[in-house]
Design brief:
The protein is α/β, with parallel strands linked by helices. Helices cover 36% and strands 19% of the residues. It has two domains: 269 residues, 3-Layer(aba) Sandwich (Rossmann fold), CATH 3.40.50; 186 residues, Rossmann fold (3-Layer(aba) Sandwich). A nine-stranded mixed sheet has the order 3-4-5-2-1-6-7-11-12, sandwiched between helices. The chain starts with a strand and ends with a helix. This is Glycogen synthase. Pathway: Glycan biosynthesis; glycogen biosynthesis.
């Protein structure tokens, strides 16, 4: 089975969030199942710099304002890559979506339409020796690919591959001006509710959700949430109509990268049967963030985008109480300037108790997972979440909001779950400061019972948080889709 997967980022080549982790980990998980997955990725300068042996295999003249080429490359960990080398779209400084000042590139519509059009051409046979059975688009940046393929088949373009659209976060939708229909190579009749039109604009994600043969999102609970008016963010009606084609498959983490027994970023290895190394990591984390080196303090970790979605605006008001309860906080993240300033001020106000590093630092993220006693994930909505999966594997009990994939992957340490030996962390609900305070109080009470804490910790570290089960589910989805088409 041949699958072309396309997205705007892929770990370890380019990453701004969890999408990149999924794109880097899913292909090797599918390979043993007989599924060859090739990843189509924009050839950003950093990607080309990391893959100097990339070689051209096809040309794409006049790709939204300039000529382009498809390059083949073998990436880290055996990733089979196709790179869209379009200098007029991608040869620029900054990140995948923003200029160096953090402002969105004004032609992002063109940059990611080009990625989708390249997937269309590959799907219709552009490469001389490889043609996919399935094109799998991820998030809004790839959303036009299913539309372009469906419209090509409808206009005499011959047989096309089956298409899958995966939503990693419904909040990011890629809406652009309706005057771009011609520039986007979309027929005028598709500017309709049964097409690409979305609240008066052109919706990249809407297009993918309407035209793809099958839809997935990244956890079963999130799949239910997005079909509601409250959780659907304007897409609830469409997703209810397509409910029979929608499936929630939870994400995993790459257990080769996230493994406390072999993690090169840690000062000491450890595992479920021997936790001495975790204490060493806690001391190292306290030293790294200039926290008081106290083993008795409950060290809370946060690795997150600092945003309203992530619920981190609920935390600052609770910090004086937490400090008074013998807690410490290790926080790594960036995002909304007001939250960045708030946490920076909190670190200055509580030296030795609160440490904050603005930005993203991969080694420090690993150290926070290993050195913390608990990881906080108070998201208002969370499609899947990877932070809590890493926390489980590293024996740092997750305290999570009971939403989306957080509810699917963490078993609350209520009395029944503790008695049955299945608890792996704690939930709180609703997502309010009061409920978070109650969850933190429950966490403190569990911390005061060391034997029970270690039992939950050991259970958490044995959970299957990798890609083996999700990969089988994707394989079954692909097989079912091809059977249906045949």
């Amino acid at each position: 089975m041949q699958v072309l997967s396309l997205a705007s980022e892929c770990f370890p080549l380019v990453k701004t969030g969890g999408l990149a982790d999924v794109m880097g980990a899913l292909p090797p998980a599918l390979a043993p199942l007989g599924c060859r997955l090739r990843t189509l990725l924009p050839a950003y300068p950093r990607v080309l710099g990391a893959l100097p042996a990339a070689a051209p295999v096809a040309a794409l003249p006049d790709l939204f304002g300039g000529d382009a080429h498809i390059l083949e490359a073998q990436g880290p960990d055996g990733l089979d890559l196709l790179l869209l080398d379009a200098p007029h779209l991608y040869a620029r400084p900054g990140g995948p979506y923003h200029d160096p000042s953090g402002t969105d590139w004004p032609d992002n519509w063109r940059r990611f339409a080009g990625l989708a059009w390249a997937a269309r051409e590959i799907g219709l046979g552009l490469l001389p020796d490889w043609r996919p059975d399935i094109v799998h688009a991820h998030d809004w940046q790839a959303g036009l690919a299913p539309a372009y393929l469906a419209l090509a088949a409808g206009n005499g373009g011959g047989p096309r591959p089956a298409t899958v659209m995966t939503v990693h976060n419904l909040a990011f939708q890629g809406q652009v001006d309706p005057g771009l229909m011609t520039a986007l190579r979309l027929p005028p009749e598709t500017f309709a509710i049964d097409g690409v039109e979305y609240y008066g604009g052109i919706g990249f994600l809407k297009a993918g959700l309407f035209y793809a043969d099958r839809l997935t999102t990244v956890s079963p609970t999130y799949a239910r949430e997005i079909t509601t008016d409250e959780g659907g963010m304007g897409m609830g009606g469409l997703l209810r109509l397509r409910g029979g084609d929608l499936e929630g498959i939870r994400n995993g983490i790459d257990e080769r990268v996230w493994d406390p027994a072999r993690d090169p970023h840690l000062p000491s290895a450890y595992g479920p049967g021997s936790l001495q190394g975790k204490a060493v990591c806690k001391t190292a984390l306290q030293h790294r963030l200039r926290l008081e080196e106290r083993p008795d303090a409950l060290l809370l970790g946060v690795v997150s985008r600092l945003s309203y979605q992530k619920g981190l605006d609920l935390l600052p008001g609770l910090l004086p109480w937490l400090v008074g309860e013998n807690c410490q906080l290790a926080l790594l993240g960036a995002g909304e300037p007001a939250l960045e300033a708030t946490f920076a001020a909190a670190a200055l106000a509580h030296p030795g108790r609160i440490g904050f590093v603005q930005g993203y630092d991969e080694p420090l993220a690993h150290l926070i997972q290993a050195g913390s006693d608990a990881i906080l994930v108070p998201s208002r909505f969370e499609p899947c979440g990877l932070t809590q999966l890493c926390a489980l594997r590293y024996g740092s009990l997750p305290l999570v909001a009971r939403v989306g994939g957080l509810a699917d992957t963490v078993i609350d340490a209520n009395d029944a779950a503790l008695d049955d030996g299945v608890a792996t962390g704690l939930h709180f609900h609703p997502v309010t400061a009061e409920a978070l305070a109650e969850g933190l109080d429950r966490l403190l009470r569990l911390w005061s019972r060391p034997e029970t804490w270690r039992t939950v910790q050991a259970r958490a570290m044995t959970r299957d948080v990798g890609w083996s089960r999700p990969a089988r589910q994707y394989r079954e989805l692909y097989e079912g889709l091809l059977r249906h088409r045949n």
